[in-house]
Write a structure and sequence with these properties.
Length: 439
């Protein structure tokens, strides 16, 4: 029997690692009582604060998994830098005593122009993370999107929330399983499918390799020690409904064992994915179809021809093609190219309410929020997600007031300082055109 390399623990299931990790609730500075947590949250004023707290409370491997980008992280940094480079026009003596943050996305009125984005392994930031995030979104009146690679299953989230949510689909080689996932989503009253198209080949995230963050996670001695120092996190994960890929494990014959599940996942991401797959998925899915991962004008035009109900301008949060253009730099070009042919959503680097204003001014109908709410979840669970949403909403409201805008629907390129950008498409229902068959 081969010996393990020095300093590397045998690969094992997360639950086994946590179960065999001895910890004391008073032994770690990362442990917070309910009272101390409530007091601490009162001093949280920004998403950056939530990030700092999450970094202390979540084991490094899982925090880095959500926080980092691919390779040298050029695109990850560009997403933020290019947003911050857009300057807003400060306007005065405009009556903004009443401000309306509501908007419509895919015909549904939502309380603010925000959608919680799909996040893989969200339940590793906090036990039952997907359920807690969905509940926070429901209370805020905005959509939540469940990832295919979630820890809590479609059924778990549906049972625990009893409200509709969006579901994100990765296309894999096994079309039968993809259809089964869509059937399960439809049975759970999911009405919007978010098809992610930019993950045919996985971009390497160096921090994941260094941390032993495989799927299932490869736990090394330092990672076990890291978990032992975070007993609150370990306890939340221990009592969670699921500790592996909830949408896959138990639903594929022979995949109950996590090692074979990991191999199946690695083998099944399909590099041959093409527009013909979008065509059959659109024909099969009974609800709205959103295509996520569009960061090119030609791809956006093709998505419109395929009849997408909405597209998401996104580079996967800087986690795929390193060196790709930032999402915000592509947004006005995409909006201009499709000419209002479908709704445009934005994803990539949102950390403030001012960022949301920037994206709406350049033509987005609403923004997908990813890391911002992940930090809240890691910091304080459901209350932290609610806090992240609240921070963004309040910053959005104040930014609107200081740029002389009273309604989200009135945010246009005129709020951008010295900007020559594409104008926002008219917010009216579009008549679906006959989709050209594209291959």
């Amino acid at each position: 029997m081969p010996r393990n390399k020095p300093g590397i623990a045998p690969r094992t299931h997360l639950a086994e690692t946590v179960n065999h990790t001895h910890f004391r609730a008073d032994a770690s500075p990362c442990y917070l009582t309910a009272t101390s947590g409530a007091i601490a949250m009162k001093t949280v004023t920004s998403i950056a604060d939530l990030r700092d707290i999450a970094r202390r409370r979540v084991p490094r491997a899982f925090f880095d998994y959500a926080d980092s980008g691919s390779y040298s992280e050029q695109t990850l940094r560009a997403n933020r830098a290019d947003l911050e480079a857009i300057k807003l026009r400060q306007r005065v003596l405009v009556d903004v005593s009443e401000r309306d943050l509501t908007t419509t996305v895919l015909g549904r009125k939502i309380a603010a122009p925000m959608i919680l984005a799909p996040i893989g392994l969200l339940g590793m930031q906090h036990g039952d993370g997907e359920i807690l995030a969905a509940r926070a979104a429901n209370e805020a009146g905005i959509p939540f999107t469940l990832s295919t690679m979630s820890v809590c299953s479609i059924e778990h989230v549906a049972e625990a929330t009893n409200k509709p949510f969006w579901f994100q689909l990765y296309v894999i080689r096994d079309k039968g399983f993809s259809k089964a996932l869509m059937d399960r989503a439809a049975a759970a009253k999911v009405d919007t499918l978010v098809l992610t198209v930019d993950l045919q080949v996985l971009g390497q995230r160096h921090k994941d390799v260094k941390n032993g963050m495989t799927v299932p996670p490869e736990f090394r001695i330092r990672n076990v020690i890291d978990i032992a120092r975070r007993p609150a996190w370990a306890w939340n994960v221990l009592k969670a409904k699921s500790k592996t890929f909830g949408n896959i494990s138990g639903f594929v014959p022979g995949m109950e064992n996590v090692n074979s599940l990991a191999k199946w996942t690695a083998d099944q991401f399909d590099p041959s994915l093409n527009w013909r797959d979008v065509e059959w998925i659109k024909d099969y899915w009974p609800g709205k179809l959103v295509i996520k991962g569009i960061n090119d004008v030609e791809d956006a035009q093709t998505a419109v021809k395929m009849g997408a109900d909405a597209i998401v301008v996104s580079n996967h949060g800087g986690r795929q093609l390193d060196g790709a253009a930032s999402s915000i730099s592509m947004l006005p070009r995409v909006v201009d190219a499709i000419g209002g042919g479908t709704e445009v959503l934005f994803d990539g680097g949102i950390r403030t309410g001012a960022d949301i204003v920037r994206a709406l001014a350049l033509g987005a109908r609403a923004c997908l929020i990813g890391r911002s709410y992940v930090y809240g979840l890691g910091a304080y669970g459901q209350a932290g997600v609610a806090k992240a949403i609240d921070i963004l909403e309040k910053e959005l409201s104040v930014t609107m007031a200081l740029t002389g805008v009273g309604k989200v629907a009135d945010i246009t390129s005129r709020v951008i300082d010295d900007g020559t950008v594409a104008k926002k498409p008219a917010a009216k229902p579009r008549a679906r055109k006959a989709a050209a068959k594209t291959t």
